[in-house]
Amino acid sequence: MTNIFKALSEESRLRILSLLLESEMCVCEIEDCLNLTQSNASRHLTVLKKSGILDSYKQAQWAYYTINDNFKKDHKDLWEYLQKKLIVLPTYVADYKQLMSYREKNRNCN
């Protein structure tokens, strides 16, 4: 449980989670939308994955991240709370617009 709350105690990780509420994302989308370096994004994603909050899979050279279904099930109350609070982060609207813009330009990893 401590690892979960440590993972949730950093703003960039909360911003990543807020975008993952919408759909899975490739690392390159996360980097671009949140203006993170590859090493920063990787560090944050590793913390979220080790805590059990995220899942990932590889497709060719790309890594995709999604919120772990077991996390949602095992921590139902926390997950419901996060769903409500992540979308009211002050950065959410701008981050979401950046994601939509990124995807519209077809610069995604597919």
From TrEMBL:
Pfam families: HTH_5. Residues 1-86 form the HTH arsR-type domain. One of its GO terms (molecular function) is DNA binding. Keywords: DNA-binding, Transcription, Transcription regulation. The keyword Transcription regulation applies. The keyword Magnesium does not apply. Signal peptide: none annotated. NCBIfam families: HTH_metalloreg. This is Metalloregulator ArsR/SmtB family transcription factor. It comes from Alkalibaculum sporogenes.
